[in-house]
Automatic annotation (TrEMBL):
NCBIfam families: PRK05406.1-3 (NF003814), PRK05406.1-5 (NF003816). This is 5-oxoprolinase subunit A. The keyword ATP-binding applies. GO terms for biological process: carbohydrate metabolic process. Catalyzes the cleavage of 5-oxoproline to form L-glutamate coupled to the hydrolysis of ATP to ADP and inorganic phosphate. GO terms for molecular function: 5-oxoprolinase (ATP-hydrolyzing) activity; ATP binding. It comes from Oryzisolibacter propanilivorax.
Length: 254
């Protein structure tokens, strides 16, 4: 199993999360590309820290929405969205090369992530961007979403992920952050929940229903309160149960 987190999201003097501590826990780092968060110097620092620890790096692409932290819905044209995604990945590729690592996958952020899970047009635009830039990139997507099969049908490698600290609806979608209980805070309960996912392929929804999820990566949000402790407990619980942890991109390459 892989554990990933969103990193590189600090902006100037404004600090977001604890990248150094999380990089000691996760196996993959979704690094901001400047559109929803992150400044070049901070992103480069995070990439160097990831390289030192052998953590796989992915591009955390987003809508151009610094003020809304990439969590506001947008409806860009296909030409805009394709170019925006290519631009962000390209920028991160340059910084990653300077840091002694490389971008191996792409995980969309926030509103873009949730939109393309079910919006065919925007989903196809993101797929087109990856294929145009580097067909060897892997797309990290929401488990159970139609996007997964659409991307695979076009020859793109896709890995499904589950969210440790987010509540699920009965249909396998994420509970909106606008609703109570959408974000989970009990680290021990979250860790046990993720072990349940690994063992059974199921999570318990917000209504108590068992929902099937096929996932090869677990996300712990770096901006959640207590994120570092939660990530540590998830990792420890899985390791104590004998679950091997490694970057999903390494698994894909055997």
């Amino acid at each position: 199993m892989d554990i990933n987190s969103d990193l590189g999201e600090s902006y100037g003097v404004w600090r977001m999360g604890d990248d150094a501590a999380l990089l000691d826990v996760v196996t993959s780092a979704n690094v901001a590309c400047g559109f929803h968060a992150g400044d070049p110097a901070g992103i480069l620092h995070t990439l160097r820290a990831a390289a030192e620890r052998g953590v796989a790096v992915g591009a955390h692409v987003a809508y151009p929405d610094l003020v809304g932290f990439g969590r506001r819905n947008m409806d860009p044209s296909s030409a805009e969205l394709v170019a925006d995604v290519i631009y962000q990945i390209g920028a991160l590729q340059g910084l990653a090369q300077a840091a002694g690592t490389r971008v191996r996958y792409v995980k969309p952020h926030g509103a873009l992530y949730n939109t393309i899970a079910h919006d065919a047009r925007q989903g196809d635009d993101v797929i087109s961007a990856l294929l145009a830039l580097d067909p060897q990139l892997t797309l990290l997507a929401l488990a159970g979403s139609p996007l997964i099969e659409r991307a695979r049908a076009r020859g793109l490698r896709v890995v499904a992920e589950a969210f440790a600290d987010r509540a699920y609806n009965d249909d396998g979608t994420l509970v909106s952050r606008r609703l109570p209980g959408a974000v989970l805070h009990d680290a021990d309960a979250v860790a046990e929940r993720m072990l349940q996912l690994v063992r059974t392929g199921e999570v318990t929804s917000i209504t108590g229903t068992r929902v099937r999820l096929q996932a090869d990566s677990i996300c712990v949000h770096g901006d959640s309160p207590g994120a570092v402790d939660m990530a540590r407990r998830v990792r420890a619980r899985l390791q104590d149960a004998g679950v091997a942890l490694r970057p999903f991109v390494d698994t894909l390459q055997g």
